[in-house]
Design a protein that fits this description.
Organism: Aspergillus avenaceus
Bound molecules: FE2/S2 (inorganic) cluster
CATH architecture of the largest domain: 3-Layer(aba) Sandwich
Strand content: 5-15%
Keywords: Heme biosynthesis, Iron, Lyase, Membrane, Mitochondrion, Mitochondrion inner membrane, Porphyrin biosynthesis, Transit peptide
Order of helices and strands: EHHHEHEHEHHEHHEHEHEHH
Family: Belongs to the ferrochelatase family.
Pathway: Porphyrin-containing compound metabolism; protoheme biosynthesis; protoheme from protoporphyrin-IX: step 1/1
Subcellular location: Mitochondrion inner membrane
Number of strands: 8
CATH class of the largest domain: Alpha Beta
Radius of gyration: 21 Å
Shape: globular
Distance between the termini: 38 Å
Length: about 425
Amino acid sequence: MALRRPFTLPRQLLRPVARSSLGFSSQRKNGLATAVPPVTQDATSSKGPTAMVFLNMGGPSTTNEVEDFLSRLFADGDLIPLGRLQAYLGPLIAKRRTPKIQKQYSDIGGGSPIRKWSEYQCEEMCKILDQINPETAPHKPYVAFRYAAPLTEEMYTRLLDDGFGGGKGGRAVAFTQYPQYSCSTTGSSLNELWKWRNRLEGKRANGNSDVSGAIQWSVIDRWPTHPGLVEAFARNIEDQLKTYPEDKRDNVILLFSAHSLPMSVVNRGDPYPAEVAATVHAVMQRLNFSNPYRLCWQSQVGPSAWLGAQTSDTVQSYVERGQSDIILVPIAFTSDHIETLYELDLEVMEEANSPGVKRAESLNGNPVFIQALADIAQEHLRRGESCSPQMTLRCQGCKSERCLEQKKFFAGDKASSLVV
Ligand code: FES
């Protein structure tokens, strides 16, 4: 089925398996074989509590969850704008794509590792927060995925069951796990959170317009240049650079790769490309601009124009020119997922067919990264702001009432008048 409207779906969710010969022999240590360290034990303070809610897109943990995952993904007009036919076309496309995508998840070990990494990162971050920010402890970890379990409604129900809201008040922080903001990703997750907040605690709950005692939400909506994030990326790059002979090391190309966006979204004013570029620049600054580098974009799909240059084309082009020492650096995700384990490792790297083309480790359970998450959260809790000033500004071309209302809600009383 041809899609006539652009969207930000990962390329591999829409196309056939590239090569049936791709096997596990090429799987890297980054894959599902990487064991998540056991969550450590820690004591918590008696103050608080504060719910820390990680937002991300999620992924199917098993191949049996693929169809439901795709159905939700194709139903999301923020991610895949199919217009009035969304409800009809979404399930059709999802059903048709399911076998191919199941095969791809099977090739990376049977499912996405994003849930186990998200839960681990959130739990570990909360323990650090209990120590460094006891005034808001205990910090309770929650994960809310947009397209896979645990879904936003499941997370919200857990919050209510755990004693937050429902007339009892309490504080929750929605912490996006997309470091760089896009309306297709963080924006979509916040729209979903706002929707379920209204259904479960807002004016529509029991027909009651009194929302006193509802959960007090604040949002960490972006953190593209946080020094801890930058440090974690830089160290992973340095580790991979050390695998090259010393006389070649300085000439290795650092190829930062992020998920692309349709140019229609870019031209609407989406802040994502600028924020991804900011992360890249900050990482290179930390590395003293030791190596040549480029930012390129992966997972384009469909016939419309997308932000380029494409990662796969870039690697091919450099290899053909004889520059075959390249480190791919996934710069816009906080853990492994199908775009790293399948698209980069099993497509781009195998197609390059050069031992000099490697990938930097994903952030996953990196303790430097988890400390950074705790530092970001601590700064947010201490500042006491509802969201960043950037959240109050809609894209120049945005016509969505939902975006407007969602932003007003999360901006809170003081800042909602700034949302335009
Ligand atoms: Fe960006 Fe609505 S599309 S604010």
